[in-house]
Amino acid sequence: MATKTKRLEKNRGKPKGEMQNWELRLYVAGQTPKSIAAFSNLKKLCEERLQGQYRIEVIDLLENPALAKGDQIFAIPTLVRRLPEPIKKIIGDLSNKERVLVGLNLIPAA
Q1: Top-level CATH class of 6-96?
Q2: Would you kindly state where each structural domain of the chain is located, as residue ranges?
Q3: Is residue 84 scored above 90 in pLDDT?
Q4: Whole-model pTM?
């Protein structure tokens, strides 16, 4: 995981009609164990469930602290689902897979 803002493009090669764009932002503060775990858990979940229909933007608040204001980030790591709307936020290392899937509306709440 790079310490700067980084984007992972995953929609290449798919016809536009087949894509549902998932725009995800992961806010971190450096390469702490929680930040690294959150990125790893998110990437694994996206590969399993969204299969190339997503973009992850990692924002390191140590390098770009002003970016926290736009999404009202008060804790880190925080995942923000920007698309599809509505905007959703999940705080933590994303290790509770069921909680993350419910939070992203990928499965219904029990």
Answers
A1: alpha beta
A2: 6-96
A3: yes
A4: 0.81
